[in-house]
Amino acid sequence: MIRSLRLYPRTWLIAWICHVFWALAGSAAWGANFQDIYRWSSTSADGAMLSQGDATTLRWSIVDDGQDVEGGSSDLVAYLDGIYGTTPGDDLSQRPWFATLQAQFDNIAAKTGLTFEYVEDASGDWNEEPAAAGEADIRVAGVAFPQPGQLGEAERPSNGGDIRLDTDNTTFHNPALLGGVFQHELGHSLGLLHVTVPGSTPLLGTSSFPLQGPQFDDLYALTRLYGDKFEAGGGNDQSTGATLLGTLATGIATTVGSDADDLHIDFEQTDFVTIDGTSDVDYYRIEVPFASEATITLTPRGPTYTFFPENLPQQSLAAGSLSNLRFRLLSGDGQTPLVTHDLADIGEEEQLASFDLPSAGTYYVEVSGAENLNQFYELSVQPDVASFAQTPWVFRDAFNAAGDLNDAVDAAPRQAAGQVDSPYEFQQGTTPSGDPAVEITDGKLFLRGVQGATGADSPSVSAVRNFAPQLSGEKWLLSLEVHLEASASSEDAAFALTLADSWPIGEPLSDDADLTVKLSKNNRYRIVEAGGNANGEVTRQGLAFGPDYLLQVLVDDTQALPKVTVAIDGVTLLTGEELAVSQLERYFALHVLTGSSLASMESVSAEIDNLSIAIVTDTLPGDYNLDGVVNLADYTTWRNLFGRRVLAGTQADGNANGRIDAADYDFWKSSFAAAANAGAYSHAVPEPTSCLLGLLAGSSLLASVRRIA
User: Do the Cβ atoms of 615 and 392 come closer than 8 Å?
Assistant: First the structure.
């Protein structure tokens, strides 16, 4: 028969909620309801020699009914099955009530350096310590308690850490109360004592039913004993394991540790970080996409409150003033300090205002404390609003027929925005059918070649002569779209892009070319370095399915020897290849190739559109059209490119995943809002239509059909 709670006063009932640590209650630590030595010092997963602040993995199990435990044979499974129902088989993790217990472990793990793993019970002796390899450290059982009103009992870690729940009550018919009481006992199993905190309902309190989820006083103890959540899984105590704080976007602060200001903690809150003592150092990594200034703020967090450890007089804790925090900003190697900031007194924030981050790349922030106490904190990195004095475009050719490309070899320069100082130069002529070999129409450039009886008629359009002043020492991106057609599917029916530091008129794949990217009608690509037909090295080759291609070449000229990355349809085929392009003169050439293997009168044509060269050394996040500002025009660019695969981080790919998707809209929206908040302008933010977002799945499917090998 289930014993009811009868009419016991509520406070009296909870005073009996559990028995634990009575012998130790008189030695509670100053400032909290625990001692460092109360924590687990060895576990079946981690082995021995664990100490204060070490992240810890604990395995737990539910004993089978009939297992001998203290107070009798366990009947917990049958008891909970009777309340919540059962499922076929012996896998207890499938029981309806299991999730209530699992949630208590998960909630503590999400806030601390503890990891919990459920395992089947090994049926060993009760309170056997330590657990053997692979066995549970914490075992959960149930018996009918003889004391009226007592709902649970737990052993401290040094006694095995096992938990017993009462199986003769109706309280556990409420899953919230079952979860709260179970997590209370779990707190004891982790090394915590009872405590009373006026104005709060801590997990380890005894004056009312505990809330599900540790409150601040509980979390202060648990993070001191086991570290914060970033200590789990290898930890962030070294720069090699640094926690990614985020990628800086103009005007948008990147923050961690914002939840530790109140005694009350919601079950869902998880944003807590601490320096748990002098041996703890936390590293964070920040990615900076452009040179800028940033403000770094380190703020100690935590409320001030009084509390009563069990059987001890009142104590107080100023949780925001326990350890004097400091930080260092480190360069991309994670070791070289750029600045050390340790100016404020204990309890005050450290702030480094408008510090110059001289270049794009990775930076690290190292946080530490001077006192051997547990200090919650908040770390924020706020990039200052940046602006560009000039547009990053060097060349963007809309192929406007007004340029009159076909009238003369040395026609007036097609300078776009006025930064390119030489015209296209090309081989004039017509095909046997009378079509121009080179033609601009409908805003596109057409190249047409026909295999003749005496050799290949290979028209060539070449540009841009001596545009190095705009590119020297920069990172620049050449992009173009190509539609390739041919009367024969052959390796010799192809389009080619060449980059060279010598005038590239003549043999289309001349030995002077520093880089050649060739797309053939037989669905193959070929990347050749340092020459073409004779002396070049075929760096990459494989399948690239046409007839439509997006070709992108990224040249990093910020180094002594430029490095080149090549992507076709968003698939990166060449990454960081060193290329000896002259600092003084650079040219690119566009070709259609009609090779010797083609029969007489076989034809090849290429349609080129959206050709551009842009400086991308320092670009604003969200500035998708590269005009130097984040505005509504960038939304239009994103909308027009939605669903496309691109070289990661280019065009409108704000999150650098290689695809223009809904996440890139969110990225632009955040950057746009930051610019608006900084007073740059005020506009309503456009929202993408549901139809547009619905197309993403379809565009992803279509993109998967096109493949590079």
Answer: yes
Residue 508 sits in which domain range? 393-615
Total domain count for the chain?
Answer: 4
For residues 170-195, give the mean pLDDT.
93
400: which strand partners?
A: none
Q: Report the candidate in 110, 93, 76, 90 with the shortest Cα–Cα distance to residue 178.
A: 76
Instruction: List, in order, residues 6 or more apart from 4 with CB less than 8 Å away.
Output: 169, 170
Residue whose pair of structure tokens reads 């029969």 in the numeric block: 599
Tokens of 121: 């019970």
Asked if 62 and 199 sit in the same domain, the reply is yes
Same domain, 193 and 242: no
When pLDDT is cut at 50, 70 and 90, the band that residue 429 belongs to is: low
**What is the Rg, in whole angstroms, of the alpha carbon atoms belonging to the chain?**
34
Helix, strand, coil percent values for the chain (each to nearest 5): 20, 30, 50
**80 contacts 66 by C-beta, under 8 angstroms:** no
Does residue 673 share a domain with residue 562?
no
Max alpha carbon distance in the chain (Å)? 109
In a domain, 621, yes or no: no
Classify residue 480: in a domain, yes or no: yes
Task: Note whether residue 545 is domain-resident.
Answer: yes
Backbone angles phi, psi at 286, to 5 degrees: -125, 135
Specify the pTM: 0.57
Residues 332, 407, single domain; the answer is no
CA distances to 236, 446, 636, 708 from 231, rounded to whole Å, are 6, 59, 43, 40
Mean pLDDT across the chain: 79
Dump the DSSP string for 20-45.
--GGGGGGPPTTSS--GGGS-S-BTT
**Angle separating helix axes 175-189 and 98-109, nearest 10 degrees:** 50
Specify the pLDDT at position 21.
39
**Residue 676, H or E segment:** helix 662-677
Q: Which amino acid is at 369?
A: G
Classify residue 218: in a domain, yes or no. Answer: yes
Q: Shortest CA distance to 426 belongs to which of 396, 387, 459?
A: 459
Dihedral sign computed on CA atoms, order 512, 514, 520, 525: positive
Residue with tokens 């989820």: 213
